């Protein structure tokens, strides 16, 4: 600890001596960050929730043909409309990466060689529908970024072909959905950033009073956010629905770090000139804030490890970890040098040039000397509460009161913890990825309308990849047919299309007896149709489920499809596995929710290990975590009261709250031990001083963080809105726990420590008295 204090004191000494150079470094890093930010890509939909999966990768490359559907509603059989459809068909067929375009115009042109002028002739071929679908099939294995230009061109071509008035034309499909969702994510990220900054500016203006440049922490943290954008760009971390939630969180956390630096600097300025105040302030507050930042990083690290198979959560954790370190850095290289320059401009504590040179070039510094002392002195602490204001005095008295009644306070906290743990089992869950997005998103509305018109429900088709060298053998086809018959008799499965279905359709309803006969039938089938079922070494089965299944029904559907495959026993040499983004992403999301206790446990373990390694003291490693354990249970009561469901993002909040909330408890604990180490200061006195001095700072930073996180509640994404309400409540609860349950925890642990020391000392005395040799040696 002493070394870390000395390390931060020397950083403060350097910043104090070279503020302009430090600011120039900060500005240069902004330029570097803008270059990295330009490399960020967006990933949306189920793809963000599907990790590395060889079977899925193979399916994507061989059978996952992208699609852009164009829905035409109106007088479809009118010759003018059909010619527009035909022009659109031909234009889109010439677009790069478009494999095929299927439209009613194809059938009409095939019948007459052209589009006739007679509506009757057109109706004779396609009937008299009031809707038509133009299906644009793209090459397999394309990424979202590669498919988006096709959607853009489809929209452009729609206007170019000039559909007649009164005809509605809607371009929809996965590419349209991905494009609009990506744009909304970027827009939402910018709006949330602006809201978070605005709300916290208001909070700082009214709460962080009595200090110079009270809005400066906003500037520092905003620079840290810019650094974070650059870092994720260079690291290749995409922007996704969940990642956009990180930045309001980072603004809240970064404000904490900057406010702590700012508040401690102001405190030291009360009794020291600026050139001593900054090294003393950073030497005193730097270590607890740094260990708090490490704890927060480890909390997000637990989320990373526990969700390693789900990219969206990994990106969320990675972005958060980058942001914590970089907002901490910006507090040092942006906020502190500006405060230094402002103090010089104001002429506070001016020295002569000789004094400045001596202080800059000397090998020692008063701050270093103060930190070198074993017991804190007046040069590092200030037991006189001085002018701490009404808030500080109130917090000091509150912490002294709860510390005076430790058993009663902790008993109430434990009872609430038990109630929260019991309530956790009855919370609802949010696991359907389509419910994560705004339900009024135009592309989503269009997609739902398309599904309704075409008879499809919500995500009704799922896929199975069959692998083996004998996939065209009649035995394999007979197994596929048997599988289809058994599976379609099960609940939730409405139909199935297999290679056997294709072969029977083109062979009079029969499966050929020999492999040669199967190959002959397949050779007569158009390549574009055959490609949906067969590729080199692979076969594709499409399973159709009931419309609008909820999450539990979808999991049952997948289990039934899988068990039916095992029941029919594929022939030797064949393997069949359910795959596709929808089939893989939903179980992944559900697993993330169900393992939330594991994630929380990892977070507690990681933070405890870090604290124990840093302090090398069991009490100091345990004390900051006790209030966070209370919060883990209390947050369930909060969620139950507000009917907030457990989402995959909220499932990581347990580990996050341990890491984030540990900052408040660590800072209070550090100041407690700093004061208790002085002669004549009792435990209750130390608690009161800590609560009055740093309680004000953490209250300001905590409430400011609450304001920043509240921006998430206004997100257009339901999953982020719920997460916003959850984080606001949890941060407030961690602040309450730090002020109300940490002081009694410190008192109880301190008394236990004293008791253990007395017992050990008593036994040592007895042992010495009972050993004559030791007594003689003492004499």
UniProtKB/TrEMBL annotation:
Transmembrane segments annotated in the record for this chain: 192-208, 215-235, 241-259, 280-306, 312-336, 401-423, 598-615, 622-641, 653-673, 694-717, 723-749
Keyword hit for Transmembrane helix: yes
Presence of keyword S-adenosyl-L-methionine: no
Domain SSD, first and last residues per copy: 213-341, 597-748
Keywords: Cell membrane, Membrane, Transmembrane, Transmembrane helix
Membrane topology: Multi-pass membrane protein
InterPro entries named in the record: MMPL_dom (IPR004869), Mycobact_MmpL (IPR050545), SSD (IPR000731)
Gene Ontology CC: plasma membrane
PANTHER family linked: MEMBRANE PROTEIN MJ1562-RELATED, MEMBRANE PROTEIN YDFJ
NCBIfam families for this protein: 2A067
Name listed for the protein in its UniProt record: RND superfamily permease
Organism for this UniProt entry: Haloquadratum walsbyi (strain DSM 16790 / HBSQ001)
């Amino acid at each position: 600890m002493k070394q870390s204090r000395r390390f931060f004191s020397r950083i403060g000494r350097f910043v104090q001596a070279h503020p302009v150079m430090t600011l120039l470094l900060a500005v240069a890093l902004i330029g570097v960050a803008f270059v990295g930010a330009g490399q960020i890509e967006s990933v949306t939909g189920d793809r963000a929730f599907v990790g590395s999966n060889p079977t899925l990768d193979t399916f994507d490359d061989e059978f996952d043909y992208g699609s852009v559907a164009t829905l035409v509603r109106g007088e479809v059989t009118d010759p003018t409309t059909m010619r527009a459809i035909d022009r659109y068909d031909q234009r889109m067929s010439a677009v790069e990466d478009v494999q095929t375009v299927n439209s009613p115009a194809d059938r009409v042109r095939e019948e007459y060689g052209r589009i006739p002028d007679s509506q009757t002739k057109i109706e004779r071929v396609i009937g008299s529908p009031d809707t038509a679908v133009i299906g644009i099939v793209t090459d397999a294995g394309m990424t979202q970024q590669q498919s988006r230009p096709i959607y853009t061109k489809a929209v452009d071509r729609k206007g170019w072909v000039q559909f007649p008035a009164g005809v509605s034309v809607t371009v929809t499909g996965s590419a349209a959905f991905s494009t609009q969702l990506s744009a909304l994510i970027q827009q939402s990220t910018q709006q949330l950033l602006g809201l978070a900054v605005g709300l916290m500016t208001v909070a700082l203006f009214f709460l962080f009073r009595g200090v110079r440049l009270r809005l400066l922490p906003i500037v520092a943290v905003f620079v840290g956010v810019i650094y974070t954008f650059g870092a994720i760009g260079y690291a290749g971390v995409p922007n996704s629905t969940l990642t956009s939630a990180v930045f309001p969180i980072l603004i809240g956390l970064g404000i904490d770090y900057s406010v702590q630096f700012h508040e401690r600097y102001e405190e030291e300025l009360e009794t020291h000139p600026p050139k001593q105040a900054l090294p003393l302030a950073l030497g005193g507050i730097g270590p607890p804030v740094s260990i708090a930042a490490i704890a927060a990083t480890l909390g997000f690290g637990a989320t990373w490890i526990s969700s390693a198979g789900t990219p969206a959560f990994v990106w969320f954790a990675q972005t958060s970890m980058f942001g914590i370190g970089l907002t901490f850095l910006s507090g040092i290289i942006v906020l502190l040098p500006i405060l230094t320059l402002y103090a010089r401009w104001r002429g506070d504590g001016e020295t002569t040039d000789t004094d400045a040179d001596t202080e800059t070039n000397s090998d020692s510094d008063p701050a270093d000397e103060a930190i070198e002392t074993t017991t804190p002195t007046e040069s590092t602490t200030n037991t006189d509460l001085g002018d701490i204001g009404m808030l500080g005095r109130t917090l000091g008295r509150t912490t002294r009161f709860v510390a005076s009644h430790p058993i009663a306070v902790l008993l109430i906290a434990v009872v609430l913890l038990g109630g929260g743990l019991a309530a956790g089992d009855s919370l609802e869950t949010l696991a359907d990825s389509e419910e994560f997005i705004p339900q009024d998103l135009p592309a989503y509305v269009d997609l739902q309308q398309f599904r309704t018109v075409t008879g499809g429900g919500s995500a009704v088709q799922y896929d199975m990849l069959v692998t083996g060298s004998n996939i065209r053998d009649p035995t394999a086809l007979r197994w596929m047919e048997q599988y289809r018959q058994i599976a379609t008799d099960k609940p939730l499965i409405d139909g199935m299309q297999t290679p056997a279905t294709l072969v029977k359709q083109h062979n009079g309803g029969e499966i050929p007896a020999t492999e040669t006969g199967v190959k002959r039938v397949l050779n007569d089938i158009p390549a574009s149709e055959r490609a949906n079922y067969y590729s080199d070494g692979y076969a594709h089965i499409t399973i159709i489920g009931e419309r609008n299944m909820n999450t539990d029904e979808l999991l049952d559907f997948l289990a039934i499809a899988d068990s039916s495959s095992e029941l029919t026993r594929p022939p030797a040499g064949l393997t069949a596995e359910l795959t596709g983004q929808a089939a893989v992403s939903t179980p992944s999301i559900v697993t993330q929710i169900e393992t939330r206790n594991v994630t929380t446990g990892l977070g507690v373990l990681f933070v405890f290990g870090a604290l124990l390694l840093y302090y090398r003291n069991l009490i100091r490693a345990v004390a900051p975590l006790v209030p966070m354990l209370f919060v883990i249970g209390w947050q369930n009561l909060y969620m139950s009261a507000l009917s907030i469901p457990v989402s995959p993002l909220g499932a990581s909040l347990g580990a996050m709250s341990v890491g984030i909330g540990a900052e408040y408890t660590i800072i209070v604990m550090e100041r407690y031990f700093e004061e208790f180490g002085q002669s004549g200061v009792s435990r209750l006195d130390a608690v009161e001083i800590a609560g009055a001095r740093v309680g004000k700072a953490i209250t300001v930073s905590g409430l400011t963080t609450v304001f920043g996180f509240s921006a998430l509640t206004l997100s257009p994404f339901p999953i982020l809105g719920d997460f916003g309400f959850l984080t606001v409540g949890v941060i407030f609860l961690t602040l309450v726990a730090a002020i109300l349950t940490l002081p009694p925890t410190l008192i109880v642990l301190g008394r236990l420590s004293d008791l253990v020391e007395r017992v050990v000392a008593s036994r040592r005395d007895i042992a010495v008295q009972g050993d004559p040799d030791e007594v003689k040696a003492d004499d």
